[in-house]
Amino acid sequence: MKLAFVAVNFNNWHISSNYVSSIKSIREYNAHSITIIMVDNHSDKQDFLALSRELDGEADVLLVRTEKNLGYFGGLNYGISHIKTGDYDYVIAGNNDVFFGKDFLSVLCNKKYIDRFSLIVPDVETVNGIHQNPQFIDRPSKGRKLGYALYYFCYLFALLIDFLWMPAKKKRNNSRRKKIDTPMEIFLCTAVILIIRPRFFEKCGMLNDVLFLWGEEAALAKQLQDAGDAMYYDPDIRVMHLENSSVHKFTSYNKYKIWQKSYRIYKDYL
Fold this sequence. Notes:
With 270 residues, the chain is an alpha/beta fold. It is built from nine helices and nine strands. It has helices at residues 13-24, 45-55, 72-80, 104-109, 142-151, 155-175, 198-204, 216-227, 252-266, and strands spanning 2-9, 33-40, 61-65, 90-94, 98-100, 117-126, 184-186, 193-196, 230-241.
């Protein structure tokens, strides 16, 4: 296979270094033509220099730097723009805080997907044992959409809803400790890692980067819907997610304001 791995770094060069090491430790790495593109999303100068030193001499790693922080999908698009997507079997784009299973390439190499599944999403397990895919198998109900509208009305509403929802959230998280073993078409994924086929770029163009951070999955679902394509959950392909390596320092209120701003855009995509 010919593959491109694309990830975004923002002030966590050591996480990005681990990402590259994880890819290179996959079995059969040398049996394929692989390019790793690390996008520095305008990190602090010291972090960028540390990353540059760490990746210096890696012939199959391309480090590029944006002139400003482009957000998550914006950063991925910047990296993807450095390759000719039609030449690759898959472009594997996502967070830098993921670790790939040793059999990632051998499993992917044996897969055959129908044409309309132009976006493949794997089983993503957090270090706490939560399986993040699929996020939603079907389109959210009217009741859930109403809940979102109330939640993002104001921060005090969100705190109240979080408190009332705590038992149900705990129950949901417990259910997500069990992996869904059935491959299927889904409505919404967790965009931690996206396995993108050339058809996606032909039908949809680049990733919709209208959202700076969070909620990108809804824009992605809308892209696929408009193109007549779909995303496909494949539990045979597995990655581990460290979670929130770039945003763990955000306060609860600041996270909420970013989510609220994104929701006002992506609510029309659900």
